[in-house]
Amino acid sequence: MKRALWVAAASVGVGIAVLGIKTLAWWVTGSVALLSDALESIINVAGSLGALVALKISAQPADANHPYGHHKAEYISAVAEGVLIVLAAGSILREAYLGFLDPRLPDQPWDGAALNALATVINAAWCVVLMRTGRKWRSPALSADGRHLFTDVVTSGGVLIGFALVPLTGWPVLDPAIAAIVAINILWTGWSLMRSSVSGLMDEAPPADVVARIRDLVSIHAEGALEAHDLRTRHAGRITFVEFHLVVPGAMTVAAAHDICDRIEQAFEADMEDMEITIHVEPEGEAKHRGVVVL
């Protein structure tokens, strides 16, 4: 978790640096398209700050008011970032509309393009870091920040290509048109981000391959039990919660049944990170003859 906090803090610094470069590019050119790119960078900084705060909250241990921990704070950060993205898109659309009403060729276009290209390269490099660490450490906040930054890289590339056409063609209306396209793309990204985060808040199950691995681990390491049924899983930030009923012979001692549970938990700990497991032991009369077959 400390590593994730360091990455989130560094992301704020990178975002501020990129914002400064893109703002300078807009100031040099007066371009509506480059202004739209700078406005999106403001959201990058706000999103990175939100991710940092969410990671700090989610790192807090469980307490009396939050017995299952604070892991879902990361999803709230991702939803908030999605809302900010939508607001940024609205602001860009407004600037694009004003640009359509009074189109003009940008000043010093090649200087502005060079500055924006530098900012895009920095964003692309940092995007790779965020996507890898978010996936590796299963952090929704870092993953959301990385996905947003990836969108920024793609849109910045499109802006640069379109912006280069403005002085080449002499068509000033291309400038606000590019800004409008950027805004629509940002809106789609914001919607996708909020949709995936809401799934986490609604206790959506992990991916099918993760569930299959969970079932395999129970089946392999529950030797001595008869079956496992009513298996349920859910994600909460980087934590995966697993619970199921384990059916054992009626004559088995509590100590022996406990040993089986310990063996299953140790197998999960060795094979999968950040798991919280709850096992309900039942006598053979409660068998449902379905679910996970014990090998």
TrEMBL record:
All residue ranges annotated as the Cation efflux protein cytoplasmic domain in the record: 206-284
Topology term for the membrane: Multi-pass membrane protein
Keyword flag Plastid: no
InterPro entries per UniProt: Cation_efflux (IPR002524), Cation_efflux_CTD (IPR027470), Cation_efflux_CTD_sf (IPR036837), Cation_efflux_TM (IPR058533), Cation_efflux_TMD_sf (IPR027469), CDF_Transporter (IPR050291)
Coiled coil segments of this chain: none
Compartment annotation: Membrane
Broad class of the protein's primary localization: membrane
One GO cellular component, as annotated: plasma membrane
Family stated for the protein in its record: Belongs to the cation diffusion facilitator (CDF) transporter (TC 2.A.4) family.
Protein name as catalogued: Cation diffusion facilitator family transporter
Top-level taxonomy: Bacteria, Pseudomonadati, Pseudomonadota, Alphaproteobacteria, Hyphomicrobiales
